[in-house]
Amino acid sequence: MNLLVGQIGHLSVIVAFAAALVAAYGYFQASQGRALGEEDASWRRLARGAFFVHGVAIFVVIGCLFNIIHAHRYEYYYAWSHSSNHLPVEYMISCFWEGQEGSFLLWIFWQVLLGFGIMKFNRRWEAPVMAVFSGVQLFLVSMILGVVLGGVKVGSSPFILLREFLTDLPVWKMNPDFVPKDGTGLNALLQNYWMVIHPPTLFLGFALTLVPFAFAIAALWKRELTAWVKPALPWTLVGGGVLGVGVVMGAYWAYETLNFGGYWNWDPVENAVYIPWLVLVASLHALVLWQKRRTGLRTAFALVVATFVLILYATFLTRSGVLGNASVHSFTDLGLSGQLFIYLAAFAVLAVALLISRWKEIPVSPKELTAYNPELWVFVGATVLCLGAFQVLFTTSIPVYNSFMGLIGIKTNVALPADQIAHYSKLQLWMGVGVALLSGVAQIMWWQRNNRETVINSLTAPTLLALLGTALVVLLVRYNGLTISAPYVVLTLAGLFGVLANFGMIFTLLRRGIRLSGGAVAHLGIALMLLGILASAGYSNIISRNVSGLLYSREFSEDLNRDNVLLWRNETTPMHGYQLTYTGQFFEVPGVPGYVDKQFLYRTDDEYKALARAPITVDGKTYYKTGDTVNILPENTYYRINYKDAKSGEQFALYPRAQVNDEMGGGEGGGLLASPAIKKFWGHDIYTHVSSVLDPRKEKPWSEATEHVLAVGDTIFLNDYFAVFRAIEPAHETAGLNLQKGDLALQADMIVTGEKRQYHAHPVFVVRNCMVGRVPDEVEDLGVRLTLNAIDPTAGKFTFGVSTTQKDYVILKAMEKPFINLLWSGTLLMALGFGLSVRQRGGKGVVAEETPETEATEEAGRRAVRPQPVS
Amino acid sequence: MKKSSLFIIAIIAVAAAIILSTTADASMYVGFGEARARAAEGNTTKVHVVGRLPRDAQKRPVGLEYDPLKDPNYFAFTLVDSTQIAQRVVYNNPKPQDFDASEQVVITGAMKGDVFMADQILLKCPSKYVKKDLEGATASVQ
After folding, report:
1. Residue A162 and residue B125: Cβ atoms within 8 Å?
2. How far is residue A766 CA from its own chain's centroid?
3. ipTM (interface pTM)
4. Which residues have a Cβ under 8 Å from the Cβ of A62 and sit 6 or more positions away?
5. How confident is the model at residue A467 (pLDDT cuts 50, 70, 90)?
6. By C-alpha distance, which of A344, A367, A388, A365 is closest to A299?
7. Cβ atoms within 10 Å of A743's Cβ, excluding its own
8. Which residues 1-40 of A are in CB contact (within 8 Å) with B?
């Protein structure tokens, strides 16, 4: 037992909390009643010191928690419930944030770093901005404080001991210092490289939304209502890019790991991040509008505040347990919903009240925008984003309405839409149309002087090309025997227009020698993503239909969704242009590329170890010799499915996975979870998962053994397979037999002819110290087990016991996802666009914010010299 | 009228349309009694039903019908809702792997003839919640 590390950790949490309090108060006093840039130096020095102490304390907390996980200190609940002895080091990092406390810590950590960044790059704004920062840190740290104040539990400490958590166990009475030998492990679904980088990305995005919020609050407080936009803009750009990439990373993880058949399920947990991202992007546009064209400042304020409040709301939704049945993967309820709600309400009410009290002072643009002002179209675009966010928010919050009505004593029974995907898709589609069209129009108009003639000139080419392209797409879709609905046609048109307009803009700007526009690149990426989503989700095609010609007789005759096929082991089944064969179960062996056939492995009592029954060779290189001990990962079984293209004859194998997962599902030993295997082609993906398998954990039920007396050379039918008893020979040192001197060991060689190949079965008969032992041999492919029961040497007769079992099968679902690569490559372009914008537009604003506000005139001048229309 | 007022009216109209559309799409938690009544009225909208599986003395669920060798896309079971009405449910998909262990089952779908056709099954399983058991803790004390 090591209690010290936990005590240091817990003490550091308390120090971090106290230091955040001092920093918040210190920065407040430094700034209160003084103009921006004329802070009280002594208060500021105190506050800086306190924030520094806060940061160091947070680093110590993280160090302690990581030590607890890394050193397998299972006396701590966190290590016991999130880690285990067999966990590879890289996933210990994911354990860190599997629990609520660790993920709060990750968020706090990013905000500490961002706070240091503000201190370095935004000196003039340091005091008021850091006052808000420290206040938020105070609340976040309180979530992991783990102290009881006046009978109320404040926060949940990650350093709680197992015996403090599971107080009812009888073991503590006998041995209070009991330490479990192993932890219960990280949820195996999260043992994926995306889960190492996706949560930090997402929480960095969360943390980055605090920066513009803190600037906006500071600006309202200090009545510096315009100067904050410039320093806040680059941070917002980084936030938009990071959060956007984080959302798509989560989608990609779901696509690779979960089995709902896609990358986005409109689960409340996904929506909770998607909503603030949309509003963040809208606020970014409003900030740019003010920065470049001196309009939209009120909108910018409102949206920046809204983004941060929505981040808090997302935290409340996913961590308070309010979603209950509505979500598959929200965090468990730690009983902190009250605290979270206070946090959410306090920040929302204070920020909104401050905004309202200053609203009239916020400058507005004197001119009314006309249709020839690109500003108008940017503004409309931001509005479309907000309406889209509102739609998702309104539906996702349905469980909250129920809880709220329950709280005031009214019982309601409203449920989320029965078909959520259809519900969201049909409405979000129109946001996509708006975004694609407006991004193209506004991007073109932004870079030119606009009047009736230039606008018509510059929009004609992309519009005509998009119409032409859409006509072609419709024809191609029809030609392939599919239908396309009117909304899809509109989205195709809008998406193509967005691609062409933005691509044309990039090209024009490069030709003019100006620069690569980050905005145009990001918008091009978004338009490509929309087309990719339309193709891959709208035309996701289930190819595992029952094509055997057999009709199952049931009470329903109409054509129902029969989306799964049954594949017998080693029997080929035709399926939508492919010949499919399930060829066996495989394990992952660390160090060996690919997967290893279970039939090569002899399982031992230690479930993480097996013996090699034959040399394990991949591409000519032998990794294990017969009899070697092999480390395996027993929770994952991979089912090899061989795909053969019926026309071209090309073959590939996919290995969908079934995972024994203790955390999900129920029953003893947890549930069995399927994860897909994906074959990527340039134009589409083939996505396959098992829907049902014979449980690999359960002992197979063998039939009663039937006895057969055979002589060498006899033939026999085993489970309908033809077999020859070829020879009797001395047993080799077979795996797991442990032959000693003086033992007599014989093995039969039985050749069984299966569908694909012949198998040698070697049941062994051992005599040791006048005791007879029998080692059966199993041909897993054929579901046959042989025992050499007795030997009659004088008559030359051998008695075999033959048992059979249920032949192995899988039930499989397979889908085709056309053009899904457009989505991923669009995401990369979007991220690149954000990066370019940060470097070009904002980058210098971070370091050189002292430059006087001349860019308005500068901008006007620059606009004057480039009036040429896009041809 | 100013253009900005027009714009605001347009936004409010879209927001109202969103709310109406969501209200129209939102489903309800009902019992089987109401689900049958809806079907009798010709209302085919899908509903949510929360129920439990009837179990025998060994806590095994009774009345499950799934034979992948006959039809991998046909799973039938009986569900008892909170008002103790039992109903046969058909799910045209493979049986979810952890169905037997689930404490509570939420299904969405609608009545069709004598059976409830479910198109989604949500399982609530005991182990999804905070870990409370320490397996072998009593056995491994030295």
Report:
1. no
2. 53
3. 0.87
4. A105, A109
5. very high
6. A365
7. 14
8. none
Between B15, B94, B137, which is nearest A390 by CB?
A: B15
Nearest to A73 by CA among A63, A83, A88, A86: A83
A809 beta partners: A568
**pLDDT averaged over chain A?**
86
Number of H helices, E strands in chain B: 2, 6
Cβ distance B26 to A325 less than 8 Å, yes or no, reads: no
- Nearest chain A residue to B112 by CA: give it: A556
In DSSP terms, A772 is beta-bridged to A767
What CA–CA distance (Å, rounded) separates A788 from A732?
15
Answer whether B100 sits within 8 Å of A667, measured CB to CB: yes
pLDDT of residue A225: 94
Q: Are B64 and B100 in contact (CB under 8 A)?
A: yes
Instruction: List pLDDT tens digits, range A360-377.
Output: 999 988 777 888 889 999
Closest alpha carbon to A326 in A241, A380, A382, A403: A403
* Helices and strands counted in chain A (H then E): 22, 30
CB A418 within 8 A of CB B120: yes
Assigned token pair, B99: 């169905």
Q: What is the pLDDT of residues A14-65, one digit of tens each?
A: 999 999 999 999 999 999 988 888 889 999 999 999 999 999 999 999 999 9
The structure tokens 């935004």 sit at A122
Instruction: State the nearest Cα–Cα gap between A826 and chain B, in angstroms.
Output: 28
User: In percent, how much of chain B has pLDDT > 90?
Assistant: 37
- Residues of chain A numbered 532-551 and touching chain B (CB < 8 Å): 546
What is residue B5's three-state secondary structure? helix
Structure confidence at residue A664 (pLDDT): 55
Which tokens is A536 given? Answer: 């891959």
Contact criterion met (CB < 8 Å) for A415 and B92: no
User: CA-CA distance, A618 to A599, in Å (whole number)?
Assistant: 15
A868, two tokens: 């040429």
Instruction: Report pLDDT digits (tens) over A780-838.
Output: 888 888 898 888 888 888 999 999 888 888 989 999 999 999 999 999 999 999 999 98
Least confident of A224-233, A510-519, A824-833, B81-90: A510-519
- Scored b (16 or more CB within 10 A) or e, B108-130 reads bbbbeeeebbbeebbbebebbee
Subunit contact A166:B120, Cβ cutoff 8 A = no
Contact A736, A602 (CB under 8 A): yes
Who's near B71: CB < 8 A, 6+ residues apart? A552, A554
Q: How far is CA A816 from CA A256, A495, A537, A562, A715, in A?
A: 14, 22, 10, 16, 46
Instruction: Tell the residue number behind the tokens 């603030």, with chain if given.
Output: A276
- For A572-607, b/e burial (b = at least 16 CB within 10 A) is bbebeebebbbbbbbbbbeebeebbbbbbbbeeeee
Predicted confidence band of residue B76 (pLDDT cuts 50, 70, 90) = very high
All domains of chain B in start order, with CATH = 25-127 (2.40.50.140)
Whole-number Å distance between alpha carbons of A788 and A781: 20
Q: Do the beta carbons of residue A812 and residue A689 sit within 8 Å?
A: yes
pTM comes to: 0.90
Burial class (CB in 10 A: 0-12, 13-18, 19+), A504: buried
Give how far B112 is from chain A: nearest CA, Å: 10
Residues 6 or more apart in contact with residue A447 via CB below 8 angstroms: A505, A508, A509, A517, A866
Question: E-assigned strands of A251-385?
Answer: none
CB < 8 Å to A170, chain B: 138
Q: Are strands B47-52 and A764-768 parallel, antiparallel or unpaired?
A: unpaired
Collect all residues of chain A within an 8 Å Cβ-Cβ radius of residue B71.
552, 554
